[in-house]
Amino acid sequence: MGGRVRLFAGMMLSVTAFCTVALLACAGGNAVQAFAGQSGETKQVQADQTASASLPLSGMVIAVDAGHGGYDGGALGRVSGTPEKTLNLDVARRVERLLKEQGAEVVMTRTDDYALCDEDPPIRKKLQDMQRRAAIIVQAGADVVLSIHMNEYAGRSESGPQVFYREECPAGRLLAGAIQEQMIGQLEPKKARSALGGDYYILTLGVPSVLVECGFLSNEREEALLLTEEYRERVADAVVRGVVRWVELPGEKPEPLEAVDRSGEETA
pTM for this one? Predict the structure, then answer.
């Protein structure tokens, strides 16, 4: 009885194999190629997933905030009159692209020339704008915030990129230090500045955050550099290198300060 069962099972397998070959033969070479193609595509997807998982920023959600926008132009180039908002967005877009290449998921607070406020809001325009930027970042579950800006000063001699972090926040200070170090190393500014603590709305959301002042538009030489695509690409590259450097620092990173409750500012 057992021998007959094994013989019958073997016959069924042979029939199944014969039918499969016959079907492929009837369908023609395209079917075979499609079957092989599907197998190749599956392997490629698996390979891409493995490669993505090995990237330094894989699994991270990073918010990139292009400062100002719309009615709020920010600083103006001393010579060219170029508004800060335009350069901020360009650098932010470059940072977005480079972060994605390192495996990060990126959320942008703005993607064009607009402010995040109503034409006639019940509160100050700037406050509503900042509240809405913060909401985008919080809803995205961002692990890091990078706010991109350009600097200015009454005197024309001040220059050099500078990174700000939330005052007394060790997590932000560590991130800012890593980015500041890369900006000095990659851009070789005439004046090498240090990361500083600052009181900025965008840095108080309870995650490691920095505000990057890419350079001084009030300095003629630095303005000329910032107006070139090549230099803005270098700026963006330095920022992303700094983030990667921070991620790869050994040891456990300090916890960020808790988010600030700004609900009382709604009618300010």
Answer: 0.81
